[in-house]
Structure formats: structure tokens, C-alpha cells
Design brief:
740 residues, alpha/beta, six-stranded mixed beta sheet, 14% strand, elongated
């Protein structure tokens, strides 16, 4: 269709060019002829025998003189009247006519073709301008047709005779494939379900994070089902004209009914299916009218119409509830991030057909990539192939995959980065501090790799790889992760007695994780104490049975000499300090009075969440603010609980690094020399005797090819994990100067 239009337009343009050329040459005088001469001049020249031949063509005379003029022309023209007889005129004027020495007179008759061409030549300007007007009218008519076609659906239909994707090309989501396999079986064998009175879901909503394979799964369903497959994006329904989206929805479902049984796939349905009433246009804006039409069409199917709607989104929380109810999208299929077995299967699918070295094992790669989506794993394989090609290798080796993992997580190496030895040393101790604390704490993830190679905005990184996929985090794991995050700053303070800006992001992430532990996960405890009346507390204090009283506002935590603890409450005007001084004056055992910053012994009380994230459903994102559902006193308790977590983590990091300071020095010295350490060399550095500088019998093996680049002077840590997603690899990364 596009080629025909191109040919038609080209023909019109060619005719216009030819017409212009013909008109141009028609209006110019004949080439090689001088201007017209009067008839009297012709007669006079004929008398003087200066004319050799006269050709009469109607009222036009073409005269050939015997001698060429000085201008170089061998002819000229003249014209006669309507009833003028040229031959008689010449004879009457005494001109000798005919051979051998007279003027030869030739009468030229006109043929039918020349008459037609002459007629066409006369009408050529009219034809030219008429054609131009017709062309402009057709263009205007085409624009009008295009305007009227706005309401037609832009969905593209895939038929079963085209190369397709099958379920074999989708890995790591076995449960989702089983759910969608029922859809395929219903389209192929509907009688099996109808015989039992079963009804296939009218709509299937694919939900998952970006890159988990929602669109790929829909293409696999189309390939397996072998029925017409209509696919369209949610954004293609909406145009600037009111009512266009609803018209396209109607046209889409009309096409689907004509091609039933079939599948209709709407990608990114959140572009049109957002919660109604959230826009500035109220219930009359274009998007909401389109959504209303989708609701009507999906709930208006006949019971015997085999049309299944599949939609994909990564924001199901912002979809309109009417769209999600049974009868429209009856089934929700969640596309989770793949586990270790799923990642292994995905890697095998994308590595098929690529020349892999025998040393490549997908088990270790799957273990190193927790939290990776299918798209990221595909990119990982591609990056490894690119690295191998860049090195002129015939196969893809394991070191290419290791480099690809670092590139996907942190970015490419910054080989042109040059830093001074002092900053390089600080970066080495910073990263060694993270790694040493992780090695020394029980609930921290194992250290996989330490590097001070600059990548992207990172000057170095420490990778912690969990031994298995984790979907739940314990309080001990979070607390030790906090300590690992503090390890870089602690190492700087202990070794250099100085701090740098490299830990700015570490501190930011530690604060964020501690706040999440308190405000989101409720990882605090309210200890239960036995109540004791204030009068009994005074009595036992006079008997010397009370050793310490902690004051939380008007709440008292009473500690006995046998370490038993009781709770009590005093009046606002009761002064414990004066009471303790009175005991001293009477020669009795004094009681230690400790004033606490908190105003309540209960602290935050029973576990709960604090605050709600401020979101706008219409925008589909968190605005970064918080809606407080607690008062100022609780806010102070939250701040104190966060400070306790961070201070405890800092003390754990200090204790671990001071205990194994010699290991810290060996790690840093190795990093300064070789810039990267992992595997057996790293294990030997950790397990070497603290008092020795190395084991001569088992020397530490450096990398085969030390990198020829420098690292950044500062380090930061990767964001804290979110529950219940699998735990991502902890990466301590460094930035240039102050972190943003």
C-alpha cells in the first residue's frame, strides 16, 4: 500500500515537471530562427531573387534566403492574412516562381497527430493547473480520511503461521507457565472444560517487576495457542481528541469477536487503567472514558465467545478496582524474580548457541546474581560475549562473566582514573573494613569479592553473596548488616585517625535501614516488668535492697541488689535526688539515680508500623514524604531507637576490627598492590595467623594479570534490601567526594 502511494505521488510530480518544461520551451522562440519579418519584406526580397524557398504552413511562412544572414540564421518567418493568396501575390509582383531560377513555393499540410498535439499544446496550461488542483484536493481528502480513522484500533494481529516464541523460550517462571498453560488448553480444547461446566477466566493480569518477562510470556502464550493474537500498548488508546480511546476499544473488541477464538494482549495497561477520580479532569477526561469502555467491553462478552484478554503491568496497586474484579481480570499471575534454580535455567536459555569455555558453570553465576531479573541475566550474557569479543577470544570464559556481573551491578571500569597513593590507601582500608566485619560476624553474608577498581560512580566495592536465596530477614541479620555498613568508616578512624567523605552513602544507607527496622518492620521490643508501688520502692530502698533507679519521666525502672527489675511510677513533684541524699544522711546505702532521655519506660510499646508513605495514585509513585500517624513523643522514641541500633552496630564494627586489625592491614596491603581479591587468595588472607605476616608454606597467589588502573578515594554501600524480595548482593561502593 505504501509503495502504491509512492508511485502515484511520483507520477504526479513527474507530470508536473514535464508540463513546466513543455510550457517553457513553447513560450521561447524557435532555436536557430530570427524574429518574424513583415510580408512586404518577403515580397521585396523575392523580387530581388534573394529567396530560395518559401514554405506555407497555414498562415505561417517559413522563408529560406539564398544567403545566410550575418547573424548566422538560415531562415526566418512571416505571417499572412486570413484570405491572402501568397502565390498570386508573388506572381502579381513580378516574382519568378518555380525552377530553375525562381522562388520555390511549398504548401505544407497538417496531419491529424500534429493537429492533436497542437491542440494539446494550446490546452496544456489549463491541463497543468487542473491537475495541480486535483492533486491538492486528493491530499485534502486523504487527510480527512486519516482524521476519521482515529477511532480505529491500532492493534497488530499475529497469526499462527509466523515464527513465534514458545514456553520453551521462557525459563525461571514455572508456576506462571502452569497458570497460562490452562489458557492455551482452553483455546485448543474448549470441550474438555465445557463438559465439566468450567469457565475459563475472561482476563489474566500479569504482574511483576520490570524485566521479569511479562511481555515475553504473553508472546509465548500466542505461540503455543496457535490462534490470532492481538497486541497493543495501553498508551495507544489515548489521543488528544475526546472519545478516540473509547472508539478504539470498541473497534479492537469488534475485530477480536470476528477472529474468535483469539487472545487480546494489552501491554502496560496501567497507562489507561489507573484509578478513576484521581485526574484533574474528574470523570470526563479522555483516559477515564477509555477505561469505562474497557470495563463495558470486558464484562459484555457472550458466554460462548472464546476471547481472552491478557494484560501486563508492574503497578497493580494503582489499577482501578472495577478492572480487577472477577468477571474482568479473574486471574492474577505474579511474575516473581527468579530464584537460584530459575536464574540457572534463564542463563542456560540465553547462553544457548554461544561458545562457552568448559570452565563456565552456571551454578556459581546463579549464586552470584541474587535479585537479578530475566532481562538483567540476558544482559549479563550479552555483556560477557562482548567482553570476550573485545579480547579476540574464541570462547566466553568465566572471567568474562565475572567482569560482566561487575559491569551490570556497578558499571564499566574507569581505566583512565588516576588518584594519589594516599587516597588509594584509604580506599583499600575502607573496603577491607567492610569485608573484615562481614567475615567476623555470624549473621553477615559471606564475602565474595573485594575490589578498589573504579566503576561508574563507585571507587571500590565489596560484594557479599548469600549462600542461598533469602526472602525473610531476621533482626540479627539486619543488625550485622548495619555493622558491615559501618566497617568502612571505622577502619578509616582506627588506621588514619581521620574520616573522609567516602562513607557518606554508608551512613545514609545505615540510617535508612535502621529506620526501616523500627518504622516498617517493628524490630523493637517492649519488655514487660512486674509492677511495684512507689511506697514499697521507698521501703526497700531504706532497707538497702535497691541499687539503682532509672527515671523515664514519671516512670521508674527499679533495679534491686539481686539484679531483679521492677517497674514503678512516682508523682510529678516527688524528688528522687533528695530522697537519695536523705538515705546518705541517715547512714543508709545510697541509691544510684539515672535520668533517661525517654519520657516513657514503655518506649515504643508493642510492635507496630509508624508513618505512611505519601503517594499519588495518578502519578504512580512515592513522593518521598511521609504522613505521620504518631505524635512528637513517639517521634522522639523512634529517633532514640534508631540511634541505639546504629550505635550498637558501630560498636560491633569497632570491636571486630580492633580484634582482627592485623587481618585488616594484610587485606589492605594486598588490595593496594593488586586492587582485587576473591576466592582462595581472599580466604587465605582471612584465615592467616593474626601474629604472622603470611604463611611461607602457602603463599597467597595474586591475580594472573594485575589490573592497570586506579580506584576512587572513597566508598559507600548498596541500598538496604526490601522484604520479601530475595536479598540482593551487598556492594560497598565509593563515590567521588561528597555522596549525593
Amino acid at each position: 500500500m505504501g509503495n502504491n502511494r509512492w508511485l502515484r505521488n511520483s507520477f504526479v510530480y513527474l507530470m508536473i515537471i514535464i508540463g513546466v518544461i513543455v510550457i517553457f520551451y513553447t513560450m521561447l522562440p524557435s532555436f536557430g530562427a530570427r524574429a518574424e519579418e513583415p510580408l512586404t519584406t518577403v515580397v521585396a526580397m523575392a523580387k530581388n531573387n534573394d529567396i530560395r524557398e518559401i514554405i506555407i504552413d497555414g498562415r505561417k511562412l517559413t522563408v529560406f534566403p539564398r544567403v545566410t544572414s550575418t547573424a548566422g540564421t538560415d531562415r526566418f518567418t512571416s505571417r499572412i492574412g486570413r484570405d491572402t493568396d501568397v502565390l498570386s501575390l508573388l506572381v502579381e509582383s513580378g516574382v519568378e516562381v518555380g525552377p530553375p531560377s525562381g522562388v520555390e513555393v511549398v504548401f505544407k499540410g497538417s496531419s491529424g497527430l500534429s493537429s492533436f498535439l497542437g491542440l494539446m499544446l494550446n490546452f496544456l496550461p489549463l491541463i497543468f493547473f487542473g491537475g495541480l488542483i486535483l492533486f491538492m484536493m486528493r491530499q485534502a481528502q486523504g487527510s480527512n480520511n486519516q482524521t476519521m480513522s482515529f477511532g480505529r484500533s491500532r492493534a497488530k494481529m499475529m497469526t499462527s503461521n509466523k515464527p513465534t516464541v514458545s514456553f520453551a523460550d521462557v525459563a525461571g517462571v514455572d508456576e506462571s507457565k502452569e497458570e497460562l498453560q490452562e489458557v492455551v488448553e482452553f483455546l485448543k480444547f474448549p470441550e474438555r472444560f465445557l463438559a465439566l461446566g468450567a469457565r475459563i477466566p475472561k482476563g489474566v493480569l500479569l504482574v511483576g517487576s520490570p524485566g521479569t518477562g511479562k511481555t515475553l510470556m504473553a508472546r509465548a502464550v500466542a505461540g503455543e495457542a496457535g490462534v490470532p493474537f492481538f497486541h497493543i500498548s495501553g498508551s495507544e488508546f489515548v489521543e488528544m481528541f475526546v472519545g478516540v480511546g473509547a472508539a478504539r476499544v470498541r473497534d479492537l473488541f469488534e475485530q477480536a469477536k470476528r477472529n474468535a477464538p483469539c487472545i487480546v494482549f494489552v501491554d502496560e495497561i496501567d497507562a489507561v487503567g489507573r484509578h478513576r477520580g484521581a485526574g484533574l479532569g474528574g470523570g470526563h477526561d479522555e483516559r477515564e472514558q477509555t477505561l469505562n469502555q474497557i470495563l463495558v467491553e470486558m464484562d459484555g462478552f457472550e458466554t460462548n465467545t472464546n476471547i481472552i484478554v491478557i494484560a501486563a503491568t508492574n503497578r497493580p496497586d494503582i489499577l482501578d478496582p472495577a478492572l480487577l474484579r472477577p468477571g474482568r481480570f479473574d486471574r492474577r499471575v505474579t511474575m516473581d524474580l527468579p530464584d537460584i534454580e530459575g536464574r540457572k535455567a534463564i542463563l542456560k536459555v540465553h547462553a544457548a548457541g554461544k561458545p562457552l569455555a568448559p570452565e563456565v558453570t552456571f551454578d556459581s553465576l546463579a549464586k552470584e546474581t541474587p535479585g537479578f531479573s530475566g532481562a538483567e541475566l540476558s544482559n549479563l550474557i550479552n555483556e560477557a560475549a562482548i567482553m570476550a569479543a573485545r579480547g579476540n577470544k574464541k570462547q566466553i570464559f568465566m572471567d568474562d562473566f565475572e567482569e560482566a556481573v561487575d559491569r551490570v551491578i556497578a558499571g564499566p571500569q574507569r581505566k583512565n582514573r588516576l588518584i594519589n597513593p594516599r587516597e588509594k590507601e584509604m580506599t583499600a582500608y575502607h573496603e577491607a573494613g567492610h569485608a573484615l566485619v562481614a567475615w567476623g560476624l555470624e549473621f553477615a553474608d559471606p564475602v565474595h569479592k573485594i575490589s578498589i577498581v573504579a566503576r561508574g560512580q563507585m571507587g571500590g566495592h565489596t560484594s557479599l553473596v548469600p549462600e542461598e536465596d533469602r526472602y525473610l530477614w531476621t533482626k540479627n541479620q539486619f543488625e550485622h548488616r548495619l555493622a558491615v555498613t559501618m566497617g568502612g568508616r571505622v577502619a578509616e578512624q582506627i588506621i588514619f585517625e581521620e574520616v573522609t567523605t567516602g562513607a557518606s552513602n554508608d551512613l545514609e544507607q545505615a540510617t535508612k535501614l535502621a529506620q526501616g527496622m523500627i518504622k516498617r518492620y517493628g524490630m523493637f521490643s517492649a519488655k514487660a516488668y512486674t509492677e511495684m508501688a512507689i511506697s514499697e520502692v521507698i521501703h526497700k530502698a531504706r532497707n538497702g535492697e535497691v541499687s539503682e533507679i532509672s527515671v523515664y519521666g514519671n516512670d521508674l525502672l527499679v533495679k534491686m541488689t539481686d539484679d531483679a527489675e521492677f517497674r514503678s511510677r512516682k508523682e510529678a513533684d516527688f524528688q528522687l535526688a533528695e530522697f537519695s541524699e536523705g538515705l546518705i544522711e541517715k547512714g543508709l546505702s545510697p541509691v544510684t539515680i539515672i535520668i533517661k532521655g525517654s519520657h516513657s519506660l514503655d518506649g515504643l510499646g508493642a510492635p507496630r508500623t509508624f508513618g505512611k508513605a505519601q503517594e499519588m495514585v495518578f502519578l504512580g509513585r512515592d513522593l518521598g514524604g511521609e504522613e505521620k500517624d504518631y505524635g512528637e513523643k513517639i517521634g522522639e522514641e523512634i529517633d532514640q531507637a534508631v540511634s541505639v541500633l546504629i550505635n550498637t552496630a558501630y560498636e560491633q564494627a569497632v570491636e571486630t576490627i580492633r580484634t582482627h586489625q592485623s587481618k585488616l592491614v594484610r587485606l589492605a596491603e594486598y588490595l593496594i598492590e593488586y586492587e582485587t581479591v576473591s576466592g582462595e587468595a581472599m580466604n587465605r588472607l582471612f584465615n592467616a595467623d593474626d601474629e604472622a605476616t603470611g604463611d611461607p608454606a602457602n603463599p597467597i597467589t595474586p591475580p594472573e594479570t594485575p589490573p592497570a588502573y586506579s580506584a576512587s578515594p572513597s566508598a559507600t554501600s548498596q541500598p538496604a534490601p526490601t522484604v520479601p524480595q530475595p536479598a540482593p548482593t551487598l556492594t560497598s561502593k565509593s563515590t567521588d567526594g561528597d555522596a549525593t
